[in-house]
């Protein structure tokens, strides 16, 4: 009668079991791309501005790129939360769509479209209640799972043209 190899030893070419503690640590590490995507989807979208601290370092260098006057602003999670809330005041509960997200090493390029309604004064243009669309792109640098720096550009000319056009439409001229 043949014996079954029930008591045979396990093959030695299988990987060693991973402890639950190590497995939890490995799976919880997020890539820079995941961090930026979550930040944009949760915070910049206006859904949960108060969660900025979960994604941003204590101080973030925000390079605002424009031809006539590039400037670097130091952002904290608290003032970024206020910044997003200002967008909510200006545009109402806006639509936010990430249209591009590319990553290389610690940098992530993002492009998005924000669609809202002009609800508060912007650059001396009184609110019109008419739609406004903003196109923006940014490169974020992530270190230790936190955004530490970004370079941002918005289509300011396009926004200005919309504000002018909407002011004329709202005035009935």
UniProtKB/TrEMBL annotation:
One of its GO terms (biological process) is polyketide metabolic process. Gene3D superfamilies: 3.10.450.50. This is Ester cyclase.
